[in-house]
Amino acid sequence: MVEAVMADPDGIRIVAQPIVDLVTGRIVGHEALSRFDRRLGWGPQQWFGCAHACGLGARLEAAAIDAALCVPDRPAGTYLTVNVSPSTLGTRALGEVLPCDLSGLVFELTENESISADPTLPATLRGYRRRGAQFALDDVGSGHARLADIALLAPELVKLDRSLITSLDDDPARASAVEELVHAALSTGAQVCAEGVETLQQLRWLHRAGVTHVQGYLLGRPHTGWAADSPALDGLVQQARTPALLNRFQTPSPQRHDRFRGGPSSWTGRKPWRLIAAS
């Protein structure tokens, strides 16, 4: 079945979900998400899980990344994030579908494998970075990704697992833990993206906590093609920057947010997500 999907030009359909800068309110990137034939009743995780179990995981991931790179007319100045297992990065299958210049491409390292188990991974990442690629550590806080992984890989972006965000409003202890996680990630020079944002209240809390990027149904659902900036989107972010209603959650410590400043930059010579320390 997996081989049939890879052989079919329409076997993998790509949808994109916007990633929004929480300072400017602009869409700065999109995450490419794979969709497969639904007649079998399998979701993407099941397809990729089956592929890895059959020894075809790297090939299916490479095919999905190739499909994402082939989607035309990506807005200028935005980046594209694609999910990849650490073990796939060094494979021929992936190398065959990538262009030489990887500027504007962000590899989201999935947590289905142990990162620390591969001693060659940091060197592999350095090679990709020399070609312009960036890296994100996905699903941080899900129980798999650890702060040690952030220190080891020095990702440009840390993505908070959606399970952390959905529980903010009814779990003060979890909210406090999220604040600590955001602070730790920012202190490494990475920026932080919260996934699964669905309410304005969550958006306000995340802004106060120092989160720099957001992604979720509130900002835009995954769909075919690329999302565009809009007054409505900008209005949401402007509302998030107001202090109203913060008492619903445990309010994050504002001084932690104030220790950092800096927003996104274009894909130029320097890393676009490195924060500028407050003077």
From TrEMBL:
Region span, Disordered: 251-271
An MF annotation (GO) of this entry: cyclic-guanylate-specific phosphodiesterase activity
This protein's name: EAL domain-containing protein
UniProt-listed Pfam families: EAL
Domain of life: Bacteria
Gene3D superfamilies reported in the protein's UniProt record: EAL domain
Domain EAL: 1-236
SMART domains given in the database record: EAL
InterPro entries per the UniProt record, alphabetical: Cyclic-di-GMP_PDE-like (IPR050706), EAL_dom (IPR001633), EAL_sf (IPR035919)
